[in-house]
């Protein structure tokens, strides 16, 4: 799955704050994500995130 830094991920499950969108800050074997609702940052394994992605929202600057 092609996930890049700066992408917003629409997740299947919501964060405890109620938001289901995450901003990608770092990608590799792990992802560093920031919740767009409350601003909480966390790192999680790539395999766990790729299972839970509903859609990728990419702003290409157009």
For the biggest β-sheet, the strand order reads: 4-3-2-1-5
Q: Which structural category do the helix and sheet elements fall into?
A: mainly beta
The radius of gyration computed from the alpha-carbon positions, rounded to a whole number of angstroms, is 11 Å
H-E order: EEEEHE
Q: Characterize the overall form.
A: globular
Count of all domains = 1
Number of strands: 5
Q: Ends: how far apart?
A: 22 Å
Major β-sheet annotation: 5 strands, antiparallel
Task: Please explain how this structure is put together.
With 62 residues, the chain is mainly beta. It has one helix spanning 46-52, and strands at residues 8-11, 21-26, 30-35, 41-45, 53-57. Strands 4-3-2-1-5 form a 5-stranded antiparallel β-sheet. It is globular and about 25 Å long.
Task: Lay out the secondary structure.
Layout: E1 8-11, E2 21-26, E3 30-35, E4 41-45, H1 46-52, E5 53-57
Antiparallel strand pairs: 1-2, 1-5, 2-3, 3-4
How would you sum up this structure in a few lines?
The protein is mainly beta and 62 residues long. Helices cover 11% and strands 42% of the residues. A 5-stranded antiparallel sheet has the order 4-3-2-1-5.
Keywords:
62 residues; mainly beta; five-stranded antiparallel β-sheet; 5 strands; globular
């Amino acid at each position: 799955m092609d996930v890049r830094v700066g992408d917003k991920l629409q997740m299947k499950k919501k964060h405890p704050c109620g938001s289901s969108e995450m901003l990608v800050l770092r990608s590799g074997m792990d992802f560093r994500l920031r919740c767009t609702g409350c601003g909480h940052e966390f790192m999680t394994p790539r395999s766990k995130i790729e299972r839970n992605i509903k859609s990728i929202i990419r702003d290409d600057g157009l």
